[in-house]
Design brief:
12 helices; single chain; globular; 436 residues; Rossmann fold; 9-stranded mixed sheet; 2 domains
Length: 436
């Protein structure tokens, strides 16, 4: 039921005392080991000694992705090179790569954090865990891998891709737990069904730990039905740890943050001020135990909120709601703010189309134009113009009434939208002067 019960169910007061102790140590540690933090604390007029209560965290300056980029490659490392045993890095397609280092202890903590997720999803030592996140500089593959090994599971290091082989192993090895992105899980399910499998009755899967991208409730239900699994949303980011930051328990009502390792704050992204529990805002993380790449108040740009009530599962770690999107993903369609995940939620309500979609942004007469491409399920009568037109109108109408947005809907033939083996590319930005 728990991987580390004494920690995961720690009474709130004790947990907060532990967090404060660790935060004070961390403030000292970064101030004396990372010049960037010495400068930023000095510029903000704050010293480590000013942290006397957890609420004092707001006195500390934020860390931004740009700060990490400027520190490329190793200027934010707090330990000497002989203590660094692993490096991960972001792809760097939109700028310099963000490089994050790990000591042996960092890797051990990471394994424990992910081990907790596996146990929350029902895994035991005898489980077979198929890791179909990409291995490499991306944290998904190796992060899930060491969680499985920490728990003592049998880990299959599949990485992403080679979908038919994935399916063969799911079937032949009797995999219990699948770890990959939601869009890849859906793709695996579709290909398996196309190849004549009935996953719920033929596969032994009981849970899937899916994350690295948003997944609407509609998409979650579709994956659960098609694969016959319970889907647990898992959240993390390379800068903070990788997968290991927060995960849903069996209740599937919000993601428990590993609060002995991280402090989560929710702020108003415009003012930087904290918002009340239950209010939506940007998640900000402080790492409490990282040795190589510790971070103070890292701005994630991910939108979520704290769920104020205690969870029935007995874990005392607070929960964040599922990430609805990123502040930089928000589309403004004729003045209305909308996240791709909200569009996904609406379209997954239509049985005639799949959960695969793309949002194409173009410029027409100096105005943004938004086209939503969706594809029909294989048995939809695609050649019947009237059926197609009435479906198109129904989708556009539902988007208008639920989200108040007017979107051009284009229905395309089955299997024509690009499938993803990692994070899905949902937005194609072809607006003048931009590229995605
Ligand atoms: O995606 C780490 C990860 C791997 C998490 C595997 C979960 C599973 P990055 O590539 O640095 O790291 O991307 C981090 O992905 O800031 C979010 O915008 C998004 N993201 C991650 N998990 C979720 C999720 C990994 N469960 C960025 N729901 C984050 C929605 C997510 N978005």
């Amino acid at each position: 039921m728990y991987y580390q019960p004494e920690v995961e169910t720690m009474p709130t007061q004790r947990l907060q005392a532990l967090q404060l102790e660790r935060l004070q140590e961390l403030a000292n540690y970064v101030y004396t080991h990372i010049p960037f933090y010495k400068h930023s604390f000095d510029a903000a007029g704050v010293t480590p000694a000013d942290i006397t209560a957890l609420a004092d965290i707001t006195k500390l300056p934020f860390t931004h992705k740009q700060d990490m980029r400027e520190a490329y490659p190793f200027k934010m490392f707090a330990v000497s090179q002989d203590e660094v045993v692993r490096i991960h890095a972001s792809s760097g397609t939109t700028g310099r790569a963000v490089v994050v280092g790990y000591t042996k202890q960092d890797l051990e903590n990471w394994g424990d954090c992910f081990g907790r997720f596996l146990v929350a999803a029902g895994a035991t030592k005898s489980s077979i865990v198929q890791v179909s996140y990409g291995y490499g500089l991306f944290t998904g593959g190796l992060g899930a891998h060491q969680g499985g090994e920490a728990l003592g599971c049998t880990v299959i290091p599949m990485s992403s891709g080679n979908t038919r082989r994935q399916i063969q192993f799911l079937n032949d090895f009797g995999t219990d737990i699948l770890c990959c992105t939601p869009s890849y899980a859906l793709h695996i399910a579709e290909v398996a069904i196309e190849d004549g499998y009935d996953p719920p009755s033929q596969f032994n899967l009981c849970a899937a730990l899916l994350g690295a991208e948003p997944c609407s409730e509609g998409m979650r239900r579709e994956i659960e039905e098609k694969l016959g699994v319970k889907v647990h949303d898992i959240y993390g980011l390379s800068e903070v740890m990788g997968p290991g930051v927060a995960c849903e328990c069996a209740q599937q009502q919000g993601l428990h943050v590993n609060e002995d390792h991280f402090i989560v704050e929710i702020i108003d992204p415009n003012t930087g001020e904290p918002v009340a529990d239950g209010e939506w805002g940007e998640a900000v993380f402080t790492t409490l135990t990282k040795q190589c790449s510790p971070l103070i108040r890292y701005r994630t740009h991910d939108i979520t909120r704290i769920l104020p009530l205690m969870c029935d599962c007995g874990r005392t770690f607070r929960r964040i709601d599922r990430i609805t999107g990123r502040t930089d993903d928000m589309l403004i369609i004729r003045g209305v703010n909308v996240f791709p995940s909200q569009i996904e939620e609406v379209i997954t309500g239509f049985a005639e189309i799949t959960a695969q979609y793309q949002i194409v942004l173009t410029t027409a007469n100096h105005l943004d134009r938004i086209e939503l491409r969706v594809e029909t399920v294989a048995d939809f009568p695609f050649d019947e113009i009237r059926a197609l037109e009435s479906l198109r109108r129904a989708i556009a109408g539902e988007l208008r009434s639920s989200l108040q947005v007017a979107v051009d809907v284009k229905i395309v033939e089955p299997k024509t939208i690009e499938r993803s083996e990692g994070k899905a590319r949902r937005i194609i930005d072809e607006r003048e002067g931009r590229q995605s």
